[in-house]
Each structure stands twice: as structure tokens, then as C-alpha cells.
């Protein structure tokens, strides 16, 4: 049975442990370098996650070493952990259709409350374009991993911009339907 079922810090840490045993601070550093560019982990997240993985038998403490502060544990992945990561990696992610996005809700609420929904769309378009410029620069100066993650985000933002344009073009019709 897969204990961790969605994209999780736990699966990521387990995957990092497959290359060999590590201390919690090594796991945090590896996570932050590969996946935490925009949201680095807090040490508390690492240790609470490792505690949960230990409880479920997905990792084990390979060694306890004295340190300047508390004892330092070196964690190793178990066979059950390897199996869990393999299962998670092989499970396709559910596509997120965003059928009830916050932005859609804002547009409809603006129309219902007789506010200018076009202004909401314009402000959002400007924010999307700003973020796209930032991501394009990051992609230009980044390594391949950065380029790939930026491409992923940019493609989503492009789709959002298409939706913004389509919604702006249909705003009068949507206003009539919402007020009916």
C-alpha cells in the first residue's frame, strides 16, 4: 500500500535517499538545490517528514553520530521505501483542469457585484506577463533543470493568458448571463 499518495516532500526525500544514506541537513540541502528554488524546506519539515517515514518503515536510522548539538541521525531508505517511491513514480498525476479557479470566481463575482471585471482581467494579465518575463530571464540564465521547470510554468501561464483574452472577448455575454 502506498502510504504517501501525492506529490510530497516525503516521496522526494525518499527518492534522494536512494542514492545513499544522508543526514537530515544533507537531505534539506539536496532538496533545496534541486526542487526548492522558490520554496526551500524548513529543517522542521525535513525532520517531521523523516519521523513519519521512519514510523511507516520507509526509512531506517543507519547511524547515530554525536554532534555539537543533538545527536545526528543518518537515514537510509528501506526496501519498502524503494517500492513506495517506484509506485509513486509510476502513478500518473491527475490532470488539473482548474474548472473552478479563483480567477474565474473573481470575474463572476465582479460581474455580480457590478464591478469592472475587465479591470480584474487587465490586472491579472499584467501580473502574468511580469511573471513570464521573470521566468524567461531565469530560464535564460539557468541550468537545464531550471530551464525545464521554467518551461513548465511558462506553458501554464501562456494557457492562462489565452483564457484571459477569451474571457475578455466574451465579457459582455458573460455579464448578461450572470445577471439573468
UniProtKB/TrEMBL annotation:
It comes from the Bacteria. PANTHER family: NEGATIVE TRANSCRIPTION REGULATOR PADR, TRANSCRIPTIONAL REGULATOR YQJI. It comes from Actinacidiphila glaucinigra. InterPro entries: Tscrpt_reg_PadR_N, WH-like_DNA-bd_sf, WH_DNA-bd_sf. Residues 13-84 form the Transcription regulator PadR N-terminal domain. This is Transcriptional regulator, PadR family.
